[in-house]
Amino acid sequence: MHIIERRRPYRLIYQQALLARTSPSHKSYPLLKEKVRRRSAGFAGEIQFDRVCAEYREEMQFRLIPDFKTATHQIDAICIFSSFIVIVEVKNISGHIHMDGTKRQFFRILNGVMTGMTNPDDQLYRHEKLVRRLIGDKVPIIGIVVFTNPSAILEIKNIKRRVIHLSGLPFVFDELVSHYRTSPTIEIEQYFNSLLSMQPPLQIHTPPLISYPLLEGVFCPDCPYTKMNYSRNFWRCPLCARKRADAHLLALQDYRLLIGSTISNLEFRRFTGLQSRTNAWTILQSCGFQKIGNKKSVRYVIPEVDLRKNSD
Ligand SMILES: [Zn+2]
Question: Which residue range or ranges hold the NERD domain (predicted)?
Answer without folding.
Answer: 41-154
